[in-house]
Description:
By secondary structure, the chain is of the alpha/beta class. It is built from 8 helices and 15 strands. The strands form 4 sheets. The chain has a 5-stranded parallel beta sheet with strand order 2-1-3-4-5, with helices on both faces. It has a 4-stranded antiparallel beta sheet with strand order 10-9-11-12, with no helix packed on it.
Amino acid sequence: xxxxxxxxxxxxxxxxxxxxxxxxxxxxxxxxxxxxxxxxxxxxxxxxxxxxxxxxxxxxxxxxxxxxxxxxxxxxxxxxxxxxxxxxxxxxxxxxxxxxxxxxxxxxxxxxxxxxxxxxxxxxxxxxxxxxxxxxxxxxxxxxxxxxxxxxxxxxxxxxxxxxxxxxxxxxxxxxxxxxxxxxxxxxxxxxxxxxxxxxxxxxxxxxxxxxxxxxxxxxxxxxxxxxxxxxxxxxxxxxxxxxxxxxxxxxxxxxxxxxxxxxxxxxxxxxxxxxxxxxxxxxxxxxxxxxxxxxxxxxxx
Length: 302
Ligand SMILES: [Zn+2]
Ligand SMILES: [Zn+2]
Ligand SMILES: [Zn+2]
């Protein structure tokens, strides 16, 4: 990614005085490619032109333009490029309701009027830190990975994308500030005890022979002789052990659901033996030996 000074700037403001001042400040900070538009309509057109070249400009947007409101402009810019960063210039108080709408829309930063060089410097510094790590490729892969889930953990994001938390967090921060996602609880996930990998497969076995050929069965317990076996073994209602006919449910016998019968060793069991296979290092492990890792969770804001 090119340096911040190479970044295109788009100023959308109807005041020539503000435009001159902003341009001067930005020049002093090293920005050279500055586009100025005096209304919303030409601002959007100019934005379209700039993104055609493959770069996303940093946008300075006046909150009170004569032709369009900032809310509508923001929507259009975000629809074209969800990764756009917009700095809203406003002379009003942030707490005003009309401004709250724009916050909900996902404004990147505020710039209070009268504009101060110090504040612009501060915003640029924040941007520099982020630009250093956010690449479009990573950004797009975070979005696509998140699209497949209602919630996702930082651990999963970083492992699936093979990135460090430091590379992922600025993107998360951007999505949170643009109200695309919200931070939820931490998520605890099973990982490989050998390599910490989160990509694991769950495997189910018979607890006696460790075979995997078993099926769900209803079982019958004959009280009189104590026989416990699957329903189909009571041929014509006769107990396979004592050969007496089972008669009254609850008196003679009882049934239980949620049992499994192994087709290999004939074992009947209520609890399936579950273990895990690490898809990275092929380590097999049980839940008891699994490593549980907690990390911050995120969810789409719908
Ligand atoms: Zn592993
Ligand atoms: Zn078995
Ligand atoms: Zn019996």
